[in-house]
Specification:
Length: 313
């Protein structure tokens, strides 16, 4: 039986765009399904400074636009639709979307991850009114004001550095006594005179009538609770993988919900691959996502050839 496409890539972040390019360039009839717009979490990057080959920082939006352009150049097609379910019948995947069903021989899940929230009082109520999860999107609204950054990983450190250029001052809190972030990033934050770092500190409450005006903080080493005046709260405490589609097909996830694959990005389901931030991996970077997308598309190409009876020797 023929399928609508050889390869369907779900998600158009760094991993999905790279998979699309490699798939299409490898002569696979490749379709990318993306709910919103291409770019994924890379859209939040103001200055991408660690992608090899780009010595001058490039905006995440511009970078992923170029990735999409390159994938289209090789023949990848893009469709804006959300995937609601995937089933597998024999060797054929049926991908249900909000615009109808499509069939394919191989599927690459590049669905990424979504930011976590703290769940403290005031966070949901004031989201979009001073509470934000994206520094480049919302930082400019609070120019020359004092901002709070929550988190201790790479994202929190990167974004605190970006926001420090806009804010009158940054108060950065982290729940433990040292950063999780890469040493070089952490050192830059600690050396920045506009960033005041408070370790062992937790956010208890965000307050304000219509916009954020103050926060209640808690020092978990001294048990002291106090108030700080800030105009914005930026939360960078990690992400949750969007792995429900993989789970629905029976592909194993790790204990925090990331999809487990082998080094060829193969899940336990033949023809189903995972790449990028949805995949269980020790290092989540755009360059890693792009590499994983390429590997997944290459492996999918070999798998499809084998299905067609063209074995690789
Ligand atoms: P992450 O590495 O998981 O760090 C999350 C941080 O938030 C940790 O410091 C964690 O504290 C803290 N946290 C988690 N839950 C919390 C809670 N409920 N309350 C308070 N604090 C909480 O996440 P990330 O920084 O978003 O990075 C995700 C991945 O992207 C990583 O692999 C990272 O390397 C990569 N990334 C890289 C760059 C770069 O290379 N420039 C930039 C951004 C992201 P604990 O430390 O106590 O667990």
């Amino acid at each position: 039986m023929t399928t609508d496409r050889d390869l369907i890539v779900i998600g158009a972040g760094g991993a999905g765009l790279s998979a699309a390019q490699y798939g299409a360039r490898g002569n696979l009839r490749t379709l990318v399904l993306e709910e919103v717009s291409s770019g994924g979490q890379a859209l939040l990057i103001d200055g991408l400074e660690n992608y090899p080959g780009f010595p001058d920082p490039i905006n995440g939006y511009d970078f992923t636009r170029k990735m999409e352009e390159q994938a289209r150049k090789f023949g990848a097609e893009f469709e804006s639709s959300g995937v609601t379910a995937i089933t597998r019948d024999g060797n054929i995947f049926k991908v249900e979307t909000d615009k109808g069903a499509l069939t394919a021989s191989a599927v690459i899940l590049a669905t990424g991850a979504v930011h976590k929230s703290l769940g403290v009082p005031g966070e949901a109520e004031l989201a979009g009114h001073g509470v934000s999860y994206c520094a480049t999107c919302d930082g400019p609204f609070f120019k020359a004001r004092r901002m709070l950054v929550v988190g201790g990983g790479d994202a929190a450190c990167d974004e605190a550095m970006y926001l420090a250029n806009l804010a009158s001052g940054i108060l950065m809190i982290h729940r433990r006594d040292k950063f999780r972030a890469q040493k070089s990033l952490a050192a830059r934050v600690l050396a920045n005179p506009k960033i005041e770092v408070r370790f062992n500190t937790e956010l208890r409450k965000i307050e304000g009538e219509r916009v954020v005006t103050k926060v209640r903080l808690f020092d978990n080493s001294t048990r002291r609770e106090w108030e700080e005046q800030v105009a914005a709260v930026f939360v960078f405490i990690g992400s949750d993988p969007r792995s429900a589609l993989a789970a629905s097909l029976g592909a194993p996830l790790d204990d925090v919900g990331y999809v487990i694959t082998n080094e060829r990005m193969e899940t336990s389901v033949p023809g189903l691959y995972a790449a990028g931030d949805v995949r269980a991996s020790p290092f989540r970077q755009l360059v890693v996502a792009a590499s994983e997308g390429a590997i997944a598309a290459h492996a999918a190409g070999q798998y499809i050839d084998e299905l067609m009876g063209e074995k690789y020797l």
